[in-house]
């Protein structure tokens, strides 16, 4: 069966699907409303389906329309990604990698990876973004990211994950705190302390693991601040607004009046993993996965 569908039909449909209003979609597309309605009708006739239902001036997606909204969005994202890579090749680049990461991955893992990978792939354009785990998943599903560095245990079935670093947690204290590695015995020493923790939106599974540490110590922490950035945690600890627990890799961060005590006596560990979308056709993604 041959469908006389052009890219513009997909874009017209997606505009209406987003706005659920023909006039607003037409204004967004800079075309007339009758012209847009006609193009949607052509698309429906070519596919032999009904995409929208109209009830008292209200536009609603049909089940077919809702399905095609997701699929067309993915197809256009993939095409856009492919054309971006083609342009890079034209400009003399081998390709590009869009990388998302949680802050702890930038302390050691990512710099070492890029330095070693660049030796055999010198003409790569890198775009790095420090974003939380959930936004990385969204970016990978929409192809706005090629690869992510996350602290997650459960991911959507459409994505792939590979653990690359398992490490201990560390307690973070002001530099002049009376407790140090020599007299530290247990987190129970800090039962009355205020804790500054990564927000649950950073990673629900990571947050749950940290809370398990407190459960095993027999107390619920006094949570004074939540954040998704380690620099905020360290600044707050430095100013004695609380103490914290972070992955060991963040203990390499310098420039703060703080100290770290490695919690190597507890069972909980945290895992840094790489995550990617197998439907991503970026050739550089395949290269970096092979390298890893």
TrEMBL record:
Superkingdom of this protein's organism: Bacteria
InterPro entries xref list: LysR_HTH_N, LysR_subst-bd, WH-like_DNA-bd_sf, WH_DNA-bd_sf
Keyword terms of this UniProt record: DNA-binding, Transcription, Transcription regulation
GO MF annotations in UniProt: DNA binding; DNA-binding transcription factor activity
Domain HTH lysR-type: 5-62
Family annotation (SUPFAM superfamilies): Periplasmic binding protein-like II, Winged helix' DNA-binding domain
Organism per entry: Polaribacter irgensii 23-P
Gene Ontology cellular component terms for the protein in this record: protein-DNA complex
Protein name: Putative transcriptional regulator LYSR-type
